[in-house]
Write a structure and sequence with these properties.
single chain; about 180 residues
Length: about 180
């Protein structure tokens, strides 16, 4: 399985990368901020992403907002959010649309590495099942919420800027 890891803590990020490689997975990218996460997913097209909620520059919710942005661009991309905190506002937005292929784990609740790997595999498999053509469900509820988020995500940029076309179609750049 090809995986992109987004975690600002270098020890945890590198530890996850080694753990996943030891389990036979390919770590396509391992990044420390939300902008690099979005760019890496666009470039690498991973089978699943592991995303920390709080990332630079403000260490509030950049990772979770980047996960929402990723799902708005590529709804079939599985995302496992791995956080030290429950961020209800954006977690609800991430989970309000198509929840197949989305997981949310609290770091302190992962008592066994096998449990983490099992959760990662379940998120990836759920997205695979969803991408199998069965029906033509609209994803408009999820997309409607992410249009606002794209503006919020872009509004908290540091001196680095999001790549061109990073906002979803229909985004008008409204402030939050």
């Amino acid at each position: 399985m090809r995986i992109v890891i987004a975690e600002d803590g270098v020890l945890l990020r590198e530890g996850l990368a080694h753990l996943l490689a030891d389990e036979g997975h390919e770590v396509a990218a391992s990044v420390g901020d939300a902008l690099a996460l979005v760019e890496s997913v666009d470039r690498e097209r991973p089978d699943v992403c592991i995303v920390d909620v709080r990332m630079p520059p403000t260490f509030t919710d950049e990772g979770l907002r980047a996960a929402i942005e990723i799902r708005s661009r590529r709804p079939d991309t599985p995302v496992l959010v791995l956080s030290q905190y429950v961020e209800e506002r954006y977690a609800i937005e991430l989970l309000s649309g198509q929840t197949s292929g989305v997981g949310y784990l609290l770091k302190q609740r992962v008592a066994d590495v096998r449990d983490f790997l099992d959760a990662l595999n379940r998120v990836a498999r759920a997205a695979e099942r969803r991408s199998t053509p069965r029906s033509s469900h609209s994803s408009s509820p999820a997309r409607a919420g992410t249009r606002r988020t794209s503006s919020r995500l872009a509004s908290t940029r540091s001196s680095r800027s999001w790549p061109r076309g990073s906002r979803t179609r229909g985004s008008r750049g409204a402030s939050s």
